[in-house]
C-alpha cells in the first residue's frame, strides 16, 4: 500500500512539475488532488506503522 501511495504521489508530482500543462488545466487540477490524497495516505501509513491495528482509512487505488 505504501508503494502504491508513493507511486501515485510521484506520478501526480510529475504532472504538476510539467510546464507543458497550463496551471488551470484539468490535468493539473486532478494531479494536485491526487498528490494531496497520496500524501495523506502516506502520512496515515507512517502513523499506523507501529500499531497492530489494520489501517481503516486507506483506500487502495491502482493507477
What composes the largest sheet?
none
Q: What is the radius of gyration computed over CA atoms, rounded to a whole number of angstroms?
A: 13 Å
Look at the helices and sheets and give the structural class.
mainly alpha
Q: Helical segment tally?
A: 2
Low-confidence stretches: none
Cα(first) to Cα(last) distance is 12 Å
% residues in beta strands: under 5%
List keywords for this structure.
2 helices; 60% helix; mainly alpha; 63 residues; single chain; 0% strand; elongated
In brief, what are we looking at here?
The chain is built from 2 helices and no strands. It has 63 residues and is an all-alpha fold. The two termini are 12 Å apart.
Describe the structure.
With 63 residues, the protein is mainly alpha-helical. The chain is built from two helices and no strands. It has helices at 2-17, 26-47. α1 runs antiparallel to α2 (26-47). The longest helix is centred in the middle third of the chain and has 22 residues, at 26-47. The two termini are 12 Å apart.
Topology of helices and strands:
Blueprint: H1 2-17, H2 26-47
